Structures are given as C-alpha cells and as structure tokens.
Amino acid sequence: MNTPLVSVIVPIYNVEQYLHRCLNSLAHQTLNEIEIIVIDDGSTDNSLNIAKSFEKKYPDQFIVIQKDNSGVADSRNMGILQAKGKYLGFVDSDDFVDETMYEKLFMKANQQNADISVCAYYGLNEKNGTFRPFQFGRMEFFNKSMKEAPELLRVNSSYVWHKLFRREFIIDNCITFPTGVIFEDMYFAWIAISKANKIVKVDEALYYHVLSRQGSYMSSYSMKLFHLFDVLEMIQNEFLNDEDMKKHMDMLEFVSIKHSIMRLQDLPKCPNQKLKKAMIKKVFDFLDEKYPNWRTNKIFFEEQFGNRTGKNLIKYRMFWNIYRFIPYKGMQIGKKCIMFISKAKNLIKKWEHISEFSYARMCKTKPLIENRVLFESFHGTTVSDSPFAMMKELQDTSSNYELIIATKKNKISEHQNLLNHYGIKAKLVIIYSKDYQEALATSKFLVNNVSWPPYFALREGQKYINTWHGTPMKTLGKKRQLAIQDMSNMQRNFLHSTHLLFPNEYTKKSMFEDYNLEKLYCGNSIVQGYPRNTIFFNQKSAQEIRKKYNFNDKQAIAYMPTWQGSASYAIDMKKIEEDMLHYLKHIDELLRDNQIMFIHLHSLLEDKIEIKGFKHIQKFPELEDNNYFLNACDALITDYSSVLFDYSLTGKKILLDLHDKEKYQNETGLQIQPEDLPFAKAYSLSDIQLFLNDINAYQPVDVEKFNSYKGKFLKWDSSNNTKIINDLFFKEDSKCHYEKEPVHLYFMKKIIDESGLPDLDRVANDPKGVAIFHRNDFTPVLQRYLLRKYNDKLCFLVSDKRMQLTLKEKVCKIFGFKLSEKAYQLEMHRILPFVEISQITDFQKSAYTRNLINGLHLKEVE
To answer: Which of 44, 263, 591, 632 can bridge 542 by disulfide, Cβ–Cβ 3.0-4.6 Å?
Structure first.
C-alpha cells in the first residue's frame, strides 16, 4: 500500500467479546488508503490472537503491536509515533464504525484543509438494542477555528473516537494523551480543538459507541473518576499559558462546570456514601478555587438548564448532600413512574388510541352500508386533492351516495365553508372520533390519498382506492435516506387497497419498488391521470377565480414548497418556521407591485406557520380547492414537490427553487434530478429575482425536452380523469383481489451489528422469502444495511403492533389473558392481507410471533 491517508489507532485490552466486530468494521472501510494500528496492552484473553488473524488476512492494512500493560493513553501515544497517515483516527476496541466513516471524514477535512474533522455518533445500549443519537447539528459553528467560534469547545464532545486529526498538526503542537489518568480523551480533544486552524463536520452518525460496557471504568463509580479534576486543571493551565486560548476561559469554565456536575448527577449509582461525600467536596472545592464566579456562569445556568425546575439548587453543597442519599433503584422507579404518567397523558391526548376500540367493535358487530363513502385527504388537514374531485363528480352524477369526509377538529368551520361554496352535501366527521370510526368500519367505499390509521384492516366487501398524491421526485419507502421504518403504515395501506391509482407508469414502477408491492399487492393497479388534475383543463374556471379574487391585473405566482421532515426524527418546528419566514421576507422584497404571491404550505406545516405581515404574499384562500386556485395562477415556484407535474399541464412557467438541494439530497434523497426536468431553476435569491423580473423570458423551455417529459409523465391526463376513475371504482363490479404466489414469512429479530447479516442473507436468497421487521426494532445499522446491500434483493414489510382489539380484548391482553386465535388471524390480515403464507420462520421468538404462527395453523420452519 502507498502512504496511507488515514491511520486508525486501536488500543486493545481483554476485549475478545467485541474485538472481531470492531476490527471487521475497520477492515471494510470504503477508504482504501488506510492503516489500522492495533496495540495490544498486555491482554490475557484471546484479543491478541483475534488481532493477529486480521493482520494475517489484511497484511496491507493491519499492524499489530504488543506491549506490557500501561494503559490506553500510553498505547495511543505509541500509535501516534508509529502512524504514517496524513490524518489520525482513534477507535475504542468495544465500539465499531460505519464503513464510510473514514472516507467521509477524510474527504471533508482534506477538501477544507482542516486540522480536525468530526461526525455525529450513536450510543448503543446493548441490553435493549437501542441507539441514541449524539452530536448532530450545530453546523453554524463549524468550518471555523475556535478563535472565530469559541462555541466549538462547547458543542464538541470530549471524545476523540468520532474525530479525525491532521497528524502533522498533532505532532507540531506536541499534543499527547496524559498517562496515569482516565479522561485522557478530554485533554487531547480540547487542546486540539483550541489550537486547530479549522474544524469541519460531517453531520451523520458514523460511529457506534457502546454505552456502559461491563468492566469499563465509566460503567462504575470509583476513585478513578477523581482524575477528572487533574485533567481539568491540566487543561486550564494550558489555556492560561497561551494568550489566544486565554481569551476563551468562559467556554472552558462552562465545560468544566458541566463535567463536574455530571459526576454529581451520577451519585445514586455509587453505593459508597464516603465516596459520594468526597466527590461532592471535590467538585465544590475545585470549582470554587479554579472558577470563583462559576455560580453566575450564564452559559451553563441559562442555556444548559434553561427553565428547568430547581436549577438554582445545584449551586449548593447542601442540595447534593441530600441528593446523595437517594437510592439508585428508587431513582429508577421514579423515572419509570414519570415516564408512565407522561405516556398516559399522551395516550389520553391521542383520541385514536381510545376510539380505536370502537372501530374494532363496530367491525365485528355492524354491517357495511352499501351506498356510504368515506373520503379523507392528508389526514383531515384539508378536503382538497383527488378525493375532493371524486366526491364532487360523484355528487354531480349521482344522488344515491351518502358522502362523509374526515376533518380535523380545528378545521371544521373552514372545511364546511368550502363544501358549501362548491355545493357539496357531505357530512364532516372529526378524525379519530367515534363517528369517524363508525364511518371507517361501515362504509362500503373508502377513498384516501395517504393512509388510514395503523389499526385499520379492510373488511370483506369493502372497496378502498388509494389515490396517493403525486409523482415522486424524492425517495420514498425503503429508499429513504433516513427512517425507512416510516413506510410501515403507508405500505400496509397500499396492500389493503383494492385499487391503487398511479398518474403514470413511472410512478407505478417507483411505488411498487419503494414499498415492495410486486410480490405482495393483490389488488387493481390503475394508470390514469389524477382526478385533482381535471381542473387544469378548465380555463373558464381559472378566469372566474381571477375575477373573483380581483387579481386580473396582477401577475399571480403560487409558492408551494414540499415537506422535508420525517415521522421518526425530531423536527425543530421553531427553526423551520424561522427559516421559512426569513426566506419569505426576502422574496417579499423582490416582488413588484404588479405581482402577488399566494403561498400554500404542506399539510404538516400550514397550521404551524402563520403567514401575515407581508406586502405581496398571502395564503391560498380557504374557500377554494387548492388545485382550482392554482389553475388560476400565472406561474409556480416550488422545490421538490410533485405539484410541478400537475401544474405543468397548464403549460405555464415553473421555477424550481433548488437553493438547498445538497442538504435535501443528503437528508431525504432524490430519484428524479431537478436538472433533468424542462423547467427553470434557481439556486439563489438572485436567480429568483431574475425570474420575477421577467417570468416568461427567464430560461426559456427546451421544446424537445418538454415533449419528452410530457410523454413520460403527462400522457395519461385528460379532462375526463375524474369520470374515468369514478366509473372504475364506484360502478364497475370488477374483481378486487388476485392471487399471488405463496410466500415464506420470516419474523426478524432486532439487528444491531454484523451478527444479523446471516439472517438477512437467508431471506434474500429465498425466492419466496418475505421479511417482517417490527417498526420499533428498526435500527440505524439495519437502515444502512438495507440501503447499501439488501434493498434490491430483499422483500420486506415493516409492521407495528397495533392489533385491532375491542376494549374488552385489550384489557384481557394487558392482564395476561390469552387472546383468541381469531384475534391473531385478524392481526395477520392487518399486517399482510390477501397473500397466502406457505411457511414461517421465526427468528424473533417472541410470544407475539408465536401466537401469530399458532393462529395460522402453520408449523414453524427453522
């Protein structure tokens, strides 16, 4: 191998249980020019032999060094002297890394000429297989030095193993790990951060850190923890002896307070009262001596603790001397009680968890009503979209149907006014209410553009059309860059549909692939333009709306951005609102007096962001169906929303706002590149200004490219879209389900590392194999294995345990009484309807999966 780009140093000591996983993750790095220096610190188990086996198998990558036991700091210092790479990395031998970690960290550091490159990481609790994310975000502080952004000391962890350091920088500054103490990471990391020319970040979790491994010093409370104060003092001395570093003593004070208080928060874990008392004394003596004004540190007490109750108590020794008598078990019980109360409150707030029992009871006791139709759009946030077009057409052509439409409680008045405006006589039911559950259980016809609740299961005799809501530009389902598990209820709804509507063959192919429908969907696939698009062939309607809302003399621009979040990851709505309003403020300044912009946000955002106070910008009017109003606009600005495909039927100008394309590509993913579409593009506010200055002249459409686009995406649209779909669904008595090949089901266990790969391989190599992953068992490791290796060859379902139970059945289940076989047969129908199951293999081995197997009267195949 040529001179390595990265040297990774791995000290090992008696870690035979974890070492293969660790070294194997390093052996398969996508960065080829890498050396792994394994330093055995006098192990007495089989660790050295495991390391040597990797050295033998990968002689160009692995170097194994033996030495007498002297601690991890000495081993790392020895590794630094042996290393030849341009950059240095450190890995703890019980942890493991993503295969792309060192390529991504190196590329980021090398491109930016940075001394340090960092990434986020996951904390892995091996007892329950849960992953907790750490160190995400705060990107505004990176691509800078600590001189430019002192907060870098605060927002970075004190660990070295999720960082990459330029070797020359470390050697030139004589940065080493202090020996004879723990917390050696803290000294190395903070001194390096304070001296680095630039620190860059890859905002992905690429390192897996095992939390509280038995036998590690951080898993127990001992005298070694007092080393913290020696290390903090060493760091303080370095800061005081450097004029540049001295300027940032407030940041050092903050992190010193933080790590000192953390030791006190862990007091209940220590059974030794003398040790607890000594720790309290040491913390206060140290802080009082080194930072006399620490009790007034605003960064710590205002930003770290915010408005937390009792934050001022932590300043006093007396508080901690009382706190130390709280038993650890008592604290754990207290935490569980608080969690239980919190969950109970959330349960009460979410009425669907209570009213769903009514749904189960009605499914068992009430017959279907032949002429009843239940419509739902975007979970009741709107009545617009294809369900609205189908409902209006149905009323205009027949009076024989009882029309019911789902709405949110806070939308009743708005939706009733819209229905009245269009003369539609439909009953509104509040989503998840008892009336809603009855309608869902008894309607012969069901129309939805997203999904029914997780406990829904199609009854015999019901017909269900899922219209979905657009040709997808972004990745969906199993191709999502984050949160594949979010596909669970959507995938299930598709499988329960008797009819699936696709606006073009591209969308059908994409959705079948993204949701694993090819082997599992037994209903009717319809390729036909969306009912909601019928209005785009009606220019008379557009003229009437322009006249009605008095903008005939203005240039009307619609702005309709897409949703960029995920159900499984926390969304900072405040930041989204701030960013959106800040962006709109700039757009408002660019608009001229003869222009007006109408904005319509995604259904998940429209109630959370208030649009007011702008000169040229206002919301879509509440009394109009969204597409009816959009049809009247002169141009559309959007980003990655499928609305562009609908609006392009008008032939009017479209601008794709791609200022955040790289971020969107990384976080969500795109399966259609915007650059391939025949529309104008903007990558900055300057581009948008040019577009607004002369909309028609900006980036003229390539006619040949547009005709090709029309042939791929628009050729199934016509002014008869709605009539064709309604005739197919409501009037034709066609077969609802078709037979598929029997499948071999595999109930999968939670996959937290490479040990789960043989099970994935077995299912992938079975032509009839279908894997079922429980939603709560989805891990970042499984996510990455699916995206990188298994998506194209593994058919799988994502399920959740939302059994369709009556209140009586639920109570029986809570108290441990066995449910009937019928209950588990219904549950299997809820998870995977209409598909014959020939064999089952249960890797999970839970009571739940065992009852499912018994309900099917199938013998398990090992």
So the answer is: 632
Q: What angle do CA 199, 201, 203 make, to 5 degrees?
A: 165
DSSP secondary structure string, 168-232?
A: HHHHHTT--PPSSSS-HHHHHHHHHHHH-S-EEEEEEEEEEEE-S-TTSGGGS--GGGGHHHHHH
Token digits for 645? 């495909």
Phi, psi (deg, nearest 5) at residue 41: -95, 50
Using CA atoms, how far apart are residues 596 and 619, in angstroms rounded to an integer?
A: 11
Min mean pLDDT across 22-31, 62-71, 213-222, 702-711 is at 213-222
Q: Give the Cα separation of 171 and 169 in Å (integer).
A: 6
Closest-CA residue to 531 (of 401, 691, 375) = 375
> Alpha helix (H) ranges present in 433-526?
434-442, 488-496, 505-514
- Give the three-state DSSP class for 63: strand
Res 620: pLDDT: 93
Q: Is residue 504 classed exposed, middle or buried when 0-12, 13-18 and 19+ CB atoms within 10 A define those classes?
A: buried
Helices (H), 521-564: 539-548
Cβ neighbours for 479, distance < 8 A, ≥ 6 positions apart: 513, 514, 669, 671, 787, 791
649-707 pLDDT, tens per residue?
A: 999 999 999 998 988 888 888 999 999 999 999 999 999 999 999 998 888 888 899 99
Given a cut of 60, whether residue 217 has pLDDT beyond it is no
Taking the model in full, what pTM does it have? 0.89
Other C-beta atoms closer than 10 Å to the C-beta of 226 total 17
What is the 8-class DSSP label of residue 616?
Answer: S
CB atoms within 10 A of CB 366: 12
Length of the chain: 862
Give residues with Cβ within 8 angstroms of 399, minimum separation 6: none
Q: How confident is the model at residue 759 (pLDDT cuts 50, 70, 90)?
A: very high
Residue 768 exposed, middle or buried by CB count within 10 Å (0-12, 13-18, 19+)? middle
Give how far Cα 184 sits from Cα of 66, 166, 224, 233, Å.
Answer: 21, 19, 12, 12
Q: How confident is the model at residue 564 (pLDDT cuts 50, 70, 90)?
A: low
Closest by Cα among 74, 103, 104, 90 to 37? 90
Looking only at the bridges linking them, the beta strands covering 555-560 and 635-638 are parallel
Which of 196-210, 399-413, 691-705, 707-721 shows the lowest mean pLDDT across its residues? 691-705
Cα separation of 497 and 441, whole Å?
Answer: 15
> CA 54 to CA 35: how far, in whole Å?
12
With 0-12 / 13-18 / 19 or more C-beta atoms within 10 angstroms meaning exposed / middle / buried, residue 239 is buried
Q: Quick one: which of 350, 369, 346 has its CA closest to 453?
A: 350
HSE-CB of 361 using CA atoms within 13 angstroms: 11
DSSP state of 487: G
* Helix, strand, or coil (residue 265): helix
End-to-end CA distance of the chain: 45
* Token pair recorded at residue 847: 């009571």
Q: Is the pLDDT of residue 402 over 80?
A: yes
CA angle 759, 763, 768 (to 5 degrees): 160
Q: Are strands 96-97 and 199-210 parallel, antiparallel or unpaired?
A: antiparallel
705: its two tokens: 């490219």
Q: Are 477 and 669 in contact (CB under 8 A)?
A: no
Backbone angles phi, psi at 406, to 5 degrees: -80, 140
Place of tokens 């980036």: 699
What is the distance between the alpha carbons of residues 716 and 529, in angstroms, rounded to a whole number?
Answer: 5
The dihedral built from the CA positions of residue 508, 514, 516 and 522, taken in this order, carries a sign that is: negative
Tokens of 118: 């960092």
